[in-house]
From TrEMBL:
InterPro entries with a match to the protein in the record: AAA+_ATPase (IPR003593), ABC_transporter-like_ATP-bd (IPR003439), ABC_transporter-like_CS (IPR017871), ABC_transporter_ATP-binding (IPR050763), P-loop_NTPase (IPR027417)
Main subcellular location of this protein, as a coarse class: membrane
Name of the molecule in the record: Lipooligosaccharide transport system ATP-binding protein
Family matches, as Pfam families: ABC_tran (PF00005)
């Protein structure tokens, strides 16, 4: 469905004095998205995710490399590609002067769909996203979760083969997130290919069949969530907390008890296949942490190991 080879995206930056410099946001990535799968792009701010998505959406030209969607070149077949994809942007761009039903109707007409077809499609979509009782409600009266569901419904008005979702549940409460997860899972069951970016690692684990982790414009890892955890982490993580200023000095005393020890300001992370056994070994050495926790390794552990814990502006 989507194929990229050596894909690059560059921008020209102009300084105040008029001097120009080139910035490469995407630096030669290879991507394959298969029909009917959910494919995720993960990465910190500035990793190149948004630039990649804009090229896939055919709204930003490719600087170098090859990109094909449905086997078509976005440079020459942009309108044909856009007619077959749906886009759910990170920010809701709903028309607040129109009600829920009218937002969907106007958007459907943008695609040139006949009025009767659009009306029938609206009823289906409102039922699908559980907004049938809000058809005549004003957009400004909807909750954040309802607005997000309406945005997803709008992106499905043209029956897209690929649905592109940029941070689909950012800012929503847990209940609203799970409702949207359920709707997206149902879409995948219907054969829609999903391409998403997210900062929620649990969301990536729930939704993505495969994903790539991007950092500084390149792909640093690729695979299913389980494959990435097995490759870059251990089965479990033991978290131990000592008093203020004691975590870093204690790290050398336990570094041989785990595959890897990570020192954080407030705790130590001991990566091991058997977290309980590791914790017992820590206590056997006479060390007495204030609190302990054993948990399974997650995609977040992988993400932070690959991209670091330093904030990127």
């Amino acid at each position: 469905m989507i194929m990229a080879r050596g894909l690059r995206k560059s921008f020209v930056r102009r300084a105040r004095r008029g001097e120009a410099s080139e910035f490469e946001a995407v630096r030669g990535i290879d991507v394959d998205v298969r029909r009917g799968e959910a494919f995720g792009f993960l990465g910190p701010n500035g990793a190149g995710k948004s630039s990649t998505m804009r090229m896939i959406c055919c709204v930003s030209p490719v600087s170098a490399g090859e990109l094909r969607i449905f086997g078509l070149d976005p440079a020459t077949h942009g309108p044909q590609i856009r007619a077959r994809i749906g886009v759910c942007p990170q920010e809701d761009t709903l028309d607040t002067e129109l009600n829920v039903w009218e937002n969907l109707f106007v958007y459907g007409r943008y695609f040139g769909l006949p009025r009767d077809v659009v009306k029938g499609r609206i009823e289906e979509l409102l039922d699908f996203v559980q907004l049938s009782d809000k058809a005549r409600a004003k957009v400004e009266d909807l909750s954040g979760g309802m607005k997000r569901r309406l945005t997803i419904a709008r992106s499905l008005i043209n029956r897209p083969e690929i649905l592109i979702l940029d941070e689909p549940t950012t800012g929503l409460d847990p209940q609203a997130r799970h409702v949207i997860w359920d709707r997206l899972f149902r879409l995948k069951q219907q054969g829609v290919t999903l391409v998403l970016t997210t900062h929620y690692m649990d969301e990536a684990e729930q939704l993505a069949d495969r994903l790539v982790v991007m950092d500084k414009g390149v792909i640093v890892a690729e695979g299913s969530p389980r494959e990435l955890i097995e490759q870059y982490s251990t089965r479990e993580v033991a978290e131990i907390r000592f008093g203020p200023g004691e975590n870093e000095p204690t790290a050398p005393k336990v570094e041989d008890l785990a595959d890897r020890v990570e020192v954080l300001p407030d705790r130590l992370l001991l990566y091991a296949d058997d977290g309980e056994r590791t914790l017992q070994d820590v206590l056997a050495r006479g060390l007495r942490p204030e609190t302990t926790l054993v948990r399974r390794a997650t995609l977040e552990d992988v993400f932070l190991r690959l991209t670091g814990r330093t904030l990127v502006d």
